[in-house]
Each structure stands twice: as C-alpha cells, then as structure tokens.
Amino acid sequence: MAFRSVSSPFVHLPPKLRQRLAQAALLWVAAPALAQTPQAQVITVTGQSAGNSASVAGFGDLPLSRTPLSASVISTTQLQDAGIASLADITRLDAGISDAYNPPGYWSQLAVRGYTLDNRFNYRRDGLPINAETVIVQANKQALEIIKGTSGLQAGTSAPGGLLNLVVKRPQRDVRTVRLGWEADGSVAAALDIGDRSDGGMRTGWRINASAERLDPPMHNARGSRQLLAGAFELQPVEGSLLEAEVEISRQSQRSTPGFSLLGSRLPEAREIDPRTNLNNQAWSLPVAMAGTTASLRYRQALGGSVDFVAHAMSQRLRTDDRIAFPYGCSSEDAFDRYCSDGSFDFYDFRSEGERRHSRALDLSLQGRARLAGLTHRFNIGVLGTRYTARYQRQAYNYVGSGSIDGGGVVPADPALTDENTNRDERSTELHLQDMVDIGRGMRLWAGLRHTRLQRDSVRTDGSRATAYTQSFTTPWLALSQAIGDTGTAYASWGRGVESEVIPNRARYIDAGQALAALKSRQVEVGYKHVSRSLDWRVAAFDIERPEWRDIGSCSADDSCERRADGSARHRGVEAEAEWRGSALSLRGSVLALRARREGSADATLNGKRPTNVPATSVKLQGAYNLSGVPGLAVLAFVTYEGERMVLPDNALATPGWTRVDLAARYTQRLGSNQSAVWRLGVDNLSDERAWKEAPFQYGHAYLYPLAPRTLHASVGLDF
Fold first, then answer.
1. Cα separation of 622 and 79, whole Å?
2. Number of C-alpha atoms within 13 angstroms, CB side, residue 272?
3. Strand pairing partners for 376?
4. Separation between Cα atoms, residue 219 and residue 222, nearest integer Å
C-alpha cells in the first residue's frame, strides 16, 4: 500500500472503518451536550486494570503491568455491558482474538495471534486443564484470562497461540443478585447469584449460581435451551489454611447452524445471503445436546516463611449428542470443498450420539517467596498429573440428497450407524518450575521449565487402527524485564511450546500409527507497558514459528503417502492496547497487525501463503460516557474492524474486511442503602452490516459465516 503525506493518519484505514469511527466520534461529541452537571461516575468498559493479575500465568498476584507477557482479563460485568452471552463473542473486545470456527449452537473455537486454540489442550479452569469441546456457560464465571503467545510455560502440550483460563466465582460477603435478560428474536434468560462469607473463628463461605435460558436467536430453526447450577464453598478451619470446593452442572440443547460456502469458483457477496437462514432445517434435524459436570477441590496451607503448599484437583465429565443435517460439497461438479455453482449442495445425515469425555487433573505445588544468594525469588514448583479419556459409539454420516442455500430442499433421514469412531486415552505427568528473581534497580529475571511425559492410545470403536506411543519433552521459557520509573516496564521474552501428533493408522501411510516428532514451536516477544492513574497502554512485537507436517506422495494407494516435516507457519506482528479513564469518559482500543505466512516448504508454491480465516489487521474500540445530567446513566459504543480473510489454502479468494458498530446504555438505579438495579439496553450491528464474519477451512471444506443481523438485547440486574 502506498502512503501519502496527509494531515490525518485515519486516511490509511479502510473507508468503511473510517466511516464507523466517524459515527462513533460524533456520538462522543454529542454526548457531553446532554450533560448538565460536572459530577459523574467513571465506568471502565473492558480490558485490564493496573492491579489485575492472571492466575494462569503462574506468578501469583503480581500485576500484569509488571509481568513480561501479553495477557488480558475480561470480567463478566464487561461481557454484560457488551451483551455477550457466548464465549465466541469475546472477539469483539480484543484485537488479538479472532473467530476460528464458530457455528451458532456449537462449541466455540477461537484463534489467538492467528493460531487456532486446541479445545482439548488450550483451555484452563482455575488454572487446571479442561476439555472445551462443550458449551461454556458464563453464569458462574468471575473473569476470563487470556495469555497470548507460546504456552509451554503453562501447558505440556498446546497450540502456540496462547491459553484461555476460566476463573470461577468464589464466596464473597453478602452477594444477592438476580438478573433477567432478553434478546431478539425471543431469547429470555434468568440468573441467580447468592452467597455469603463469615468472619472470625472457623471462617466459612458459600456461593450459589443458577441460570436458565430459552434460546431463540435471529437464525431460523435454531431454538434451544441452556441451564446451569453451580455451587462454591470454602472452609478456613485455622489461620493459614483454606479448603475450597465447587461443582458445576450445565446443559445446552440447540440446533447448530452450518455455514455457507463458495458457489463453484465464485465467492458470493454477503448481501446475497439472508443471515437468518439456517441450512440445518430438515424436519428430522435434531439439536446438539451438550451436558457437563465439573467439580474441583483445592487446599492451601501456609508453611511459614511466605511459602504455601497447594493441592488442587478437578474432574470434568462431558456428554454430547452431536447431530446435524450437514451440508458438504458438490458431488455433481466433483468438488468437495465448496457448494455447487447453482447454490445447491450435498446433504448428509450426521449423528454421533453418546460421546463421553472425562478429564481429571491433580496439581501439587509449593508457591511463595524466598531469599537465596542475597536475591529475592518468587517461585512456583510442582507436579501436575492429568488423565483424559474419550469414549464414542459408531456414528452416522450418510448422503441423503441435496439442498439449496435459500433453505429449500427436503431430504429423508438416514440415521444408520455406518462409520466407526475413535476412542482415546491420554496420561501425562508434568514437572513445572517458575522463578522470578529480583536483581535490583528495577530489573527482574524470569525463568520457567516444564518437563512432560506423555502417553497416548487410540483405537477405533470396532477395535481396528490401534495406536500407542509415549513421548517426553521439555519446554523452557526465559524473560528479562526492567522497570522504568513508577509507570513503565520494558521486557523481552523467549519460550517454546509443544504439540504431539501421530501418523494416521491407515494403509496408505508409510509407518502408519507411529508417533511423529514433537512439534516444537517458539516465540520471541519484546514489549513495553505503561500504567498510570488515567492511562494504561502496552505494545508488543512478537515472532512465533511452528513446524508444519505435510503428506508427500500420491496418497492414493497402500504405502503411497509419507507424512513428514515440511517448513513452518510463522506469525509475526505488533499488538497494541490502550485504555484512558477520564472523569466522565473512558476509552479503550486494541490493534493487531499480523503477518502470517508459510515458510520453508519443499513445495515452493506453498511458501508465502497466508493461513485461511486469519485477518491480517484487527481493530477493536470501546468507549463509555457518563451523563452527568442523569446520574447513573452511561452510553457505550463498540467498534469492531477485521481485515480480509483467505478462503482457500492457495489464497485464490479472500473475503472483504468489515466494520461493525454496536451501541448500548447502562443505568444504575439506587433503590436503598444496600439495594440497586442495573438496567442495560443495546443494539448490535447498528447499521445491519452484511459481511462474511469468518471463513473457516474446516474438514477440507471452505465455509462462510455471515455477520448476525441487527439485534436488540436488554437486561436488568437487581442487587437485594
């Protein structure tokens, strides 16, 4: 792009983004005119404060502003202000996070810095690993923590984009909240949050969260329901010890919404498509049903000398009935990665019922501070043992006819179980050590080491294609930070992450069923953080490289295919974030400029290609203005811009970039000395923008998901 010499930098932004920014600016210019008195309450719309810490980082209560890593903390209050009810929609609040494959009615998949998070390995719950191949209900979550970059410091195996940690609500003094919500077309929700904590003697605490929702989104044929019941309890029998227990039971049942696709060689314009259309609209279509039970127990004992012993155990059981009338490919044109030129597609009856996933984890650690060789150390040393099992039944995946993107076409059901599934077992033991050394004069050395021993087994449900392997690897991490005055921190870090794979146990592969060498990713990051009373900002430049595997050979006959290492996926970029808090106005913005490319492949045609479904540029802006003329009333605005996304691996087609503006208002009404009501009203996609929100290349197929249409939502929360 050629740059011109101009007076304003905004001319370099896409025209639609400039238009939306201008609309938002007019809103903020006009809002003060409504103010009548100077007194106003400050409202921070989202992001992280100087005092926030991220427990998943492993450095205790150190504020993020002083740690040498990129992270964000998003509270559930901030999600409510934005009208966000799904984990997938947090992409509206942080430029470093984007959609990876998010069909409504299914579990969420996210990408961080362009790498898709693995739902089996990149998610944590209060720091322990969980399986996120399920719906994540937010009613009992206090915050979401997102660590960005290679995660070998916190995880034995994981994709290199980062980790997402769910922080569970714990007992607090005198919690009494009920919340009611509504969203067009007819979704309604109710939630209860109550609890208390005693003081003195044998301290006890409890907290109960319950929610029930009727789901009726703008998409047709997508009604469903969602429920949650959770309890958290604590007991402090003597000073210096704390026992915490919690349990969560959740369920969601809803038809999922499949994506659209290319029409032959053509990328359809988003305005051609009604975003309310659900192609999963057959009379026999069944909902995806996801149920989960999670329980944890944590015991902390002070040992003296600022050292604590912590034992933390968790068990998660998931059950899923995965069912859909699934559009896939076009057999009449011999194209199985897109729909037909005339808008038709092949329909399949897919059913995988009774899926069971069970995750267990136990972490034993020593955490605290110590003096060694005249230096202060803040350390965390321990061992984490995990076990994961997945049990499935035979599945249906049967061709039943053809449909059309206009929602037409009636096909018969065929639920016959014609295909095998794959059962999996995994055990891992991870020895982990983290240490922060205060060198003096504001300089700190940070180091981490995690050694993992992994054992994985898999077998088809008919007993065929069995695989088994063990692997051991070590992932180091090293950083140096320097405090600059009372407000700044500069840092540089280097670290590794690991992923583990096996050659598919199929006849066409040479060495089928054998473990591949561990995929060792690495990241280098340099950054600067500034924090003050009214302004926080940070900027980070990163370089992440992950090896890639590729199938070599014809792969059309027995022993004709070899899977081997072939180059890497390299993501380099700059990420910036700023938050300003004034007396009546608060603003926050984040920007990601990403260069993601394939490098070093033996096939020169692959080098230089961008990954599919990864925007090169993302801008997320939020603002809140408190109207002093109406005490307690705040007007909020959210602007989201994402650049073009590649649709096909050969980069032949790309979706255009898009901009979306959301507006909301929040009114806090005092009802008494200890009572208040918080009213929220919002409209998402104010201009009813039509665009392709994401373009995942999933299951060897190019899918397109549209932006949701203009949607209203409202809620009221009562503290009593």
1. 12
2. 12
3. 371, 438
4. 6
Token pair of 66 as six digits: 């002083």
> What is the rounded distance in angstroms from the CA atom of residue 493 to the CA atom of residue 529?
14
Tell me the CATH number for domain 13-719. 2.40.170.20
Residue type at position 499? E
Identify the pLDDT of residue 505.
Answer: 85
What the block records as the tokens of 448 is 């981490």
DSSP string, 63-119: -GGGSSSEEEEEEHHHHHHTT--SGGGGGGT-TTEEESS--TTS---EEETTEEPPT
Q: What span, in angstroms and rounded, lies between the C-alpha atoms of 97 and 116?
A: 10
| Tokens standing for residue 198 | 């005693």
Burial class (CB within 10 angstroms; exposed 0-12, middle 13-18, buried 19+) of 200: exposed
What was the pLDDT predicted at 53?
76
pLDDT score of 24 more than 50: no
Predicted local distance difference test score (pLDDT) of residue 350 = 98
Tokens of 677: 């009501």
Taking the CA atoms of residue 275, residue 280, residue 286 and residue 288 in that order, the dihedral angle to the nearest 10 degrees is: -60
| Sheet containing strand 123-125, strands side by side | 70-75, 141-148, 162-168, 123-125, 128-129
Measured in degrees and rounded to the nearest 5, phi and psi for residue 23 equal: -60, -45
Spatial CA neighbour of 225 closest among 135, 97, 324, 335:
135
pTM as predicted: 0.92
CB 542 within 8 A of CB 548: no
Going by their DSSP bridges, the two strands 162-168 and 123-125 should be labelled as: parallel
Confidence at residue 427, expressed as pLDDT on a 0 to 100 scale: 98
Sign of CA dihedral 258, 263, 267, 272: negative
Separation between Cα atoms, residue 571 and residue 591, nearest integer Å: 16
Q: What is the 3 state secondary structure string of 451-491?
A: EEEEEEEEEECCCCCCEEEEEEEEEEEEEEEEEECCCEEEE
The average confidence (pLDDT) of the chain is 92
Query: What type of residue is 140?
Result: N
Residue pLDDT, tens place only, 42-82: 333 444 443 477 777 778 788 899 999 999 999 988 999 99
pLDDT reported for residue 27 = 41
Query: What's the pLDDT score for residue 60?
Result: 78
Q: What is the mean pLDDT of residues 508-526?
A: 93
pLDDT at 38 over 60: no
With residues binned 3-state (H G I as helix, E B as strand, rest as coil), the percentages for the chain, rounded to 5, are: 5, 55, 40
Give the three-class secondary structure for 660.
Answer: strand
Is the link from the previous residue into 185 a cis peptide, with omega within 30 of 0? yes
Q: Give the Cα separation of 518 and 432 in Å (integer).
A: 19
Note the pLDDT of residue 232.
98
Give dist(CA 455, CA 333) in Å, integer.
44
pLDDT over threshold 60, residue 23: no
pLDDT digits (tens, 9 = 90+) for 609-621: 999 999 999 999 9
Give the three-class secondary structure for 133. coil
Is the Cβ–Cβ distance between 595 and 609 less than 8 Å? no
437-474, pLDDT tens digit by residue? Answer: 999 999 999 999 999 999 999 999 999 999 999 999 99
pLDDT of residue 33: 35
Which pair of tokens denotes residue 419?
A: 């295909």
Domain ranges of the chain: 13-719
Please tell me the number of Cα atoms within 13 Å of 349 on its side-chain side: 19
